[in-house]
Design goal:
The chain is mostly helical. It has two domains: 16-115; 160-236, Serine Threonine Protein Phosphatase 5, Tetratricopeptide repeat. It contains twelve helices and no strands. Helix 4 (57-69) runs antiparallel to helix 5 (73-87) and helix 5 (73-87) packs antiparallel against helix 6. The longest helix has 15 residues, at 73-87. It is elongated, with a radius of gyration of 22 Å.
Length: 237
């Protein structure tokens, strides 16, 4: 090929291993990143960028979308967790939309933990299910709350915890609280109902309903009295 017919270097696309995200991604305004072109580099770069600048909403959404496109459940949860932390109680529609998109990938524990915090967002010190991909979370991991019990009897009645979580996904906090309160009164020995109800009270700072429910539980079996006492102290402050 002669010099006159050779394709200029500027028009040739470099192979993926030579692409440097730092030179290209800051100018990319698309919410979708070409994962075949960038491989793991884009996600790694965006994670570092978010660690430095958590309020970079474009980078946050790009990172979530990368993991969703790759069907990476752990990456999607970690990126969503960082998005929730960065936005706090702002951007409810964005957080809800991204959570619904990720729903098929998330475990029940992770989905419920995020759904419970749709209204309030997540603080970086909040106890949340473990994530190896979050760059902003500083909280405890492996919490025992948010566990769905399998109905061994195969009853057709739907688990009230699942009903409550669905309402939380659509920010219907009061309805979810009512379902959980009724379920706790009917089955006071069930730990996950108590823990989810306490999480709702904590997220909404609901002193009035917490105090009323605490009185109703007097004399009933309470498998987690320490958790109720801790939340009482928290709400008192």
């Amino acid at each position: 090929m002669t010099a006159s017919t050779r394709k200029p270097d500027a028009e040739q696309s470099p192979p993926p291993d030579l692409l440097e995200p730092a030179f290209h991604l800051p100018q990319c305004r698309s919410l979708q990143i070409d994962t075949k072109k960038w491989g793991d580099k884009a996600a790694d770069y965006l994670a570092r960028d978010i660690a430095r600048t958590p309020t970079n909403l474009l980078a946050q959404i790009q990172r979530v979308n990368i993991y969703l496109d790759r069907r990476d459940a752990d990456g999607a949860y970690g990126a969503l967790l960082d998005l929730f932390i960065a936005l706090g109680d702002k951007g409810l529609l964005i957080r809800r939309r991204m959570l619904l998109r990720a729903k098929p990938l998330l475990s029940k524990e992770r989905l419920q933990a995020l759904a419970l915090r749709l209204e309030t967002g997540v603080a970086d010190t909040d106890p949340m299910p473990q994530s190896g991909q979050s760059v902003l979370s500083k909280g405890l991991t492996g919490i025992r709350q948010l566990v769905v019990r399998v109905n061994d009897a195969g009853e057709s009645r739907r688990d009230p915890l699942e009903d409550a979580i669905e309402h939380l996904e659509y920010s219907q906090v009061d309805k979810a609280r009512e379902i959980l309160e009724q379920a706790v009164l009917e089955d006071p020995g069930r730990v996950e109902l108590h823990n989810n109800l306490l999480a709702v009270y904590r997220a909404s700072n609901d002193v009035e309903n917490f105090s009323a429910m605490r009185k109703k539980l007097n004399g009933k079996k309470n498998p987690v009295p320490d958790e109720w006492e801790q939340l009482a102290k928290h709400l008192a402050t």
